[in-house]
Every structure is written in structure tokens, then in C-alpha cells.
Amino acid sequence: MSLLYPRLLAGQAKPLFDEYRELSIVDVARRVDVSHPSAVYVATGGDRIGTEQLWTLRESVVDLARQAGFPEESDRTRNADFDLRLAELLHSQMNLVPAEAASRDLWAFLGLVLLPDVAFWRYPRPPRDRVLGTDLTRHVFGRLWWRAQLVYSPGDPSPYEALGILGEAAFDQIYARRAALGGSPHLVKAILRVWNELDLKGLNQRETLQDFLKRLLRLAPFVLFDGIEEETLDSELRAVARESVAALLHVKHGESPESASVVEEHLATVFAQSSQDSARGPAPDETPVERAWPAVEAVAVPAATTASTHVTTGLPEPSRVLSSFEVCSGSGAQARGLEQAGFRPVLLVDRKAHACWTIEINRPEWKVVCGDLLHFDPADHPEVQGVDLFSAGLPRIKSAATTKRHDDEEERAVLRQAVALVPQIRPRAVLLENMSDLVEKDDFKNERTWMEAELRSAGYRVFWKVLDAADFGVPQHRKSGFLVALREPYADRFVWPSRTVLRVRTVGETLGPSMAAGGWPGADAWVRGAWHPAPALVGGSDRRGGADLGPTGSKNAWKQLGVNGNSLADHLPDADTPLTEQPKLTIAQTAMLQSIPSTWQIAGGKTAAYRQIGNALPPPLARAVGEAIATALAG
């Protein structure tokens, strides 16, 4: 019988987290318990775990931690070994079913009640998601249980042996794509088996894995991986891996006849450990064997630095393709606008799995790192050095006068990290986007002062500006604050963009055709009533906000336009919708109000998708600022 664990709800977990961050490990250890007055159980099926069982689990985990140096400081090697052993222990001893393990509140209980000392030892002063469980791919304990769940082979003598095949960063690449790939233990085990066969000396393993997973991601809508037998699946994955390796080798060695033999020799080395028949692709004079699914076109395109490597996107080819590196990329809307301005990203970074997947779906040739910016080391990514533009859509911070203790500490840490990256990577230009208050309000004077001082000391001249997306063709009054910084001589040539439209489209004009598409008889009258541009969409955050149009003030503004902002709709109004009903917006309609193209697919459920859209910088505004920067760089 599976076990049910106590759950610590967010309202009780957050105060504990804020308190424990300020304590020593010794002091945190004094708070350890097997119960909490606010803990609850949810009947997902199973027996409630007993007090003695919880103490036993704690003792087992603490024993492992002591072997890794707990409670003293550890090191990267011992931490990695501790994680592997802890993954096996948690999965084998907790007796959880996946439905129970999917509860964020369960892992918050472990991180803040049963094992807080171990949690805060493993990640000193951790970001919230490491302990609160807001993202299970990052929780100190939850991520390890799920990692073991996906590789567990009950019939094997060593059922957790595959845990050691990939490191955490590589495994997270799979799990971040869990909606299409990481949710299938059958597929994950096959990926690990095939990956373990490859000899990747001389190749960038991270790039190879990314390319391999992107090819699988593109196949996911058409292939039922769980329906393919193990041997056949392994054979097909080897073929996909061969395509990835071949693409990277051709990029490295070129396409000349002389390089062809070099590529073939390297391929033979990479796949030497695989079965000769299944791993060795057909020789040039052999008839290819029919594949279970079609080959995927190459997606391992290096960072574009010349027009010849431009990826076809339907956009006009700029005279010179500029390189960019973007962090806090979100749905990729800002990068999409910068792409139109002539910038091609060498790398994008975001910590949200759904956001990373959105970018990969729409631009599989872009390289994406799905991870925390606070742990990003540019030394691991030499391609970002000296890019033309470093850009970021940073999370919103609060003024020191209004924020509660630690309420926006993570956001401020990300802001500091983004500014600190500039002197390390030395881009020609910097573009940081945030709320308009950061630029205009006296409450943020200290933030502007230290940011400008840091960038000036690195040799940049700084420009501040608030721009309204409505002035650039977006049917929404949405003000964004910008910091642009350029080195000389480019700074002398920089001029902020001017508005590109004289009249802003209204909500009715923008959404009228979609409101009428289902035969709603009230559509025409609704269009006449929605005669203003939209108020700013509010995307919310992990800590607050769901699939609705924002706080009370925002909802009231939408009500004046005939829109019910209390939630989002699953479908458009139809012939049966009452004539005078105030319709809700669909996810697709919110994207239209942000001027995100209908072809730009947004990954995730309703809340995850809306957060990506609502927090995005509209592409037309990103393009306008990007073009101003590109003009300055061109001279």
C-alpha cells in the first residue's frame, strides 16, 4: 500500500522559508519535527505515514548527508554523489505513487519540517523553488525522487544504475521537456541506454544532447514512443543520435568532400560501442533501411554571425546578422522582436520549463539553457563572449519603501546577476527591460544609481527610457522601462525609437473577428463597446496570480470594455452565448493583444501559457528598440 505524506500549504510554508534563510544550520536543526499544526493530508489513495516512519526516513537522509560532510560545507563532487544516493533512497523508501509525488506541498513539508537542516545545508540561502516546491524540477528533494522514478528498472539487479549516466544539468534537459519526453519513463530509459553507448570525445556533450532532444521533441506529436518495443526504440534513437552527431560534425568540419571522410571516421568512433547493425547508419552505397519515423532535418545550427548562416524564418534578411545573448527569455517574445531587428541569439536562458519548451517549439535552432540565472557561469558558454547584444526581460522588483522583508529578494538577485554579467561577457550593447517605475519613480533612485555606476565602470554609457507598446502598433497601453547601455563609439550614435503608428487599434478592432467566429449574435455590439485599446495584461508570478486578467483595478478596466476578467475562457463565444454576456478572453486572444504572432505556439496549460503571454514584451516594441540599437552598432 502506498503512503500519504503531510502537506505544508503555501501560506504556512513561505513564512517558515523566510525565517530559516536567516538562521544557521544548527538553529534550523532545532526546528525539525515530524508534524506541523498546519499540515494537511489529501486522500489520493493509501495509508497515512506514521510518526516512526517519518523519523526513520529522516535518519536515513541525515546519515547520507553526514557522509557528504553535513552539517559542514560540502563540495561539488560530494554533493553530486549525495544527490545520486539520495535519489535512490527517497524513491525506494518513501513508497509514493506519482500522483502523491506531484504535490508541491508534500515536498515543502519535507524541506521545511522534516528535513529543513539538510535542505538549507545542500543549498545555502536557496531560492524559493529549491525548498517551497514551486518548481519540482528544482526542489532539493522532489527533483531527485522524480529523477529516480523515470530511470527505475524494477527487473534489473541494479534498478537505479541509470541515475549515474547523466549529470543533473543534462538530466534536467530531459525533464524540462517532460510534457513531451520526460513524462515517459519508457522513453527516458531508452535515451539513457543509447546515450551511455556513445563516445563523445571531441564533441560538446551539452550541445549534442540538446540537438538530440530537440529532434525527439519535433517528433513527439507524431510518434507514440510508449508504444514502441524496447529494442526497436533503442535502434531508432540511435539513428536520431547519429543525425545529431553528424550535423554537429558537419558544422565543425564543413561540407567539403575532404571533410566527409573525417566526419565518417568520427561517426564510427562515436558509435563504436553500439550494435554494429543498429547503430551504424547505411553506408553511401547501401539502400537505407526504412525508419519507424522520418528523419528530422538538422537543427544544430551554430550561432549566426553572417548572413550565410541565417535560418529561414520568413523575415527579410538583414545586411549583417548580429549576435545576441538573452536571459530571462520567457516565451521568447522579446527575442522574436529582436530577431526581426536583425539579431540572432547564440544562447537563451530561462528557468521555467514551459518557457524553454515554447522557444524550442518555435525556434528549434536556437540554443536554450533551462536553468537558474543565479547559477549561470559564462565560462561554461564561451559563445556568449563579446556578443553584439546582451538582453534581458527581468522579473519585476518592488521599491524598498513598499516591499516586505524578502518579498522580492529573488528578483533583486536576478537583477544584480544580470548587471554583473555585463563586464564578464563584454557585449557591444546591453538591453534590460523592466517595469516603467524602475525608470521613472524616485522610489527606485538607488537601483538606478548602482546599476548605472556598475555599467559605467565597465565602460558603457547608459540610457533610460519608458516606452508605450501602443505607440508601436500594439493594441494595448503597456509601458515598459528600458535601460540601454553601449560602449563607445556606438553610444554617440544611439537614438531612442519614435512611435510608428498614429492611431492605436482598439480591443474591438483586434478581437472582433475572433469574437464573431463562433456565431455569437452579440459580437457586433460588443465590438462597438470595446472602443479603447486594452489595458496592460498582467501575467502574475509563481507567488500570485492565475489565469485571470489581474488585480481588481485591471478587471474593472476590462469590464468597461465588455470583458469578464475573472478568468480565461476555454473557447470563443458561440451561437448559444447570450446576446449581452461579457465574454472572457481565450489564451489566443491575449496573445493577439500582445501582438504575438498566431504561429508562435505557447507551451503549457492555461495558467502557464497566460503567464508567459502576460509577462512578455510585445515583439513590435522589442523590434523597435532592437533596430535603434542595431543602427547604432552599424555606424
Contiguous uncertain segments of 5+ residues: 275-319
Helix content: 40-55%
Number of strands: 9
Beta-strand percentage?
5-15%
Assembly category: single chain
Number of helices: 27
Give me the secondary-structure category: alpha/beta
Distance between the termini: 71 Å
Average of the residue pLDDT scores: 85
Query: What is the C-alpha radius of gyration, as a whole number of Å?
Result: 26 Å
Please give a structural write-up.
By secondary structure, the chain is an alpha/beta fold. The protein has 27 helices and 9 strands. It has a 7-stranded mixed beta sheet with strand order 5-4-3-6-7-9-8, sandwiched between helices. It has a two-stranded parallel sheet with strand order 1-2. Helix 4 (76-93) crosses helix 9. The radius of gyration is 26 Å and the shape is globular.
Core attributes:
635 residues; alpha/beta; seven-stranded mixed sheet; globular
Task: Please provide a brief summary of the model.
44% of the residues lie in helices and 8% in strands. It has helices at residues 10-20, 25-29, 51-67, 76-93, 98-101, 104-114, 116-122, 129-132, 142-151, 168-175, 178-182, 185-197, 205-219, 230-253, 257-270, 276-279, 333-340, 353-362, 409-425, 437-440, 445-457, 507-516, 523-529, 552-560, 587-593, 606-614, 619-634, and strands at residues 3-4, 47-48, 322-327, 343-350, 368-370, 389-393, 429-435, 460-468, 479-487.
Secondary-structure topology with pairs:
Layout: E1 3-4, H1 10-20, H2 25-29, E2 47-48, H3 51-67, H4 76-93, H5 98-101, H6 104-114, H7 116-122, H8 129-132, H9 142-151, H10 168-175, H11 178-182, H12 185-197, H13 205-219, H14 230-253, H15 257-270, H16 276-279, E3 322-327, H17 333-340, E4 343-350, H18 353-362, E5 368-370, E6 389-393, H19 409-425, E7 429-435, H20 437-440, H21 445-457, E8 460-468, E9 479-487, H22 507-516, H23 523-529, H24 552-560, H25 587-593, H26 606-614, H27 619-634
Parallel strand pairs: 1-2, 3-4, 3-6, 4-5, 6-7
Antiparallel strand pairs: 7-9, 8-9
Helix pairs in contact: 1-6, 3-4, 4-9, 6-7, 12-14, 13-14, 14-15, 17-27, 22-23
